[in-house]
Amino acid sequence: MDRLAAMQTFVRVAEAGSFTAVADQMDVARSAVTRQIAALEAHLGVKLIARSTRRLSLTSEGVRYLELARDILDRVSEAEGELTCGRKGLSGLIRASVPMTFGLLHLTPLILEFSRAHPDIRIDLDFNDRRVNLIEEGMDLALRITKQLDDTQVARRLTACRSVVAASPEYLKRHGEPKHPDELVDHACLAYSLVMRTAWPFMIGNEVHWVDIRGPITANNGNALQDAAVAGMGIVYQPTFIAADALRNGTLVPILKDFPTPVLDMFAVFPGGRFVPQRVRTFVDFLAEKLGPEPYWDRGLGLD
């Protein structure tokens, strides 16, 4: 038995809470995972995982072994990274979950540049707007856009993420331009369907004011909403990383500029309790440098 490999498998199973999920991540049969855990338990002479038909849980020995195994594996990874990075460069796989539209518009060109600089690193991108469980799905990091992270999350801020409220010149000519967020109730608003509430936030004074909206189209993709707005179907509340080109070429016009939208942040989020490999840290450093504290797509928009 390869004890280090068995230890790695045990940590994966403990974190994912599933033999099947880990087997899928490793692309092996579930029986291979269970045999490896059984061999590790036999070697140690203790039961690490209590199995039942419905759930998987760690024994008290398993909880303690998980803590020790994580520490050992982190030290091994760190030692290997220190020795191999300078000798032969970075290598290995990075699995990242990224917002679909941001990934397609802005991340793909950066990935190509990073890959040319680090040809031995393989990058597996999951373009998806849902919030994935990093541990269960075997991800090294996720890019998330939010106002504030949970205190338990390990993350690195990459850049600012502003939004703009905009409509086409045709729509404004036909329906008029609202002068206050509360007037949006009388307009067709194009809503993003992956948020819990159909309301848009604005800063009025020093407080966030939520305005309920309604309209003819909802979608789970920002590009689709922007296409509808450009076609004159309504007003859109968009991140500037999507809307910047349309604002510059005049197919969308910013409105309600006296009522700014809250500025969010884009973070690289890591699985909690895990050592972050050097290749992942280097990738995130690269993204932070390229995106910058004030992102390039906001330059010249005059939205401040």
Describe this structure as you would to a colleague.
The protein has 304 residues and is of the alpha/beta class. The chain folds into 3 domains: 3-85, Arc Repressor Mutant, subunit A, CATH 1.10.10.10; 89-154 and 269-298, 3-Layer(aba) Sandwich (D-Maltodextrin-Binding Protein, domain 2), CATH 3.40.190; 163-254, D-Maltodextrin-Binding Protein, domain 2, CATH 3.40.190.290. The protein contains 9 helices and 14 strands. The strands form 4 sheets. A 5-stranded mixed β-sheet has the order 4-3-5-14-6, with helices on one face. Strands 11-8-12-7-13 form a 5-stranded mixed β-sheet. Helix 1 (3-16) packs across helix 3, helix 1 crosses helix 4 (60-88) and helix 2 (19-26) packs across helix 3 (30-44). The mean pLDDT is 88.
What are its keywords?
3 domains; Arc Repressor Mutant, subunit A; elongated; 304 residues; 23% strand; 5-stranded mixed beta sheet; D-Maltodextrin-Binding Protein, domain 2; alpha/beta
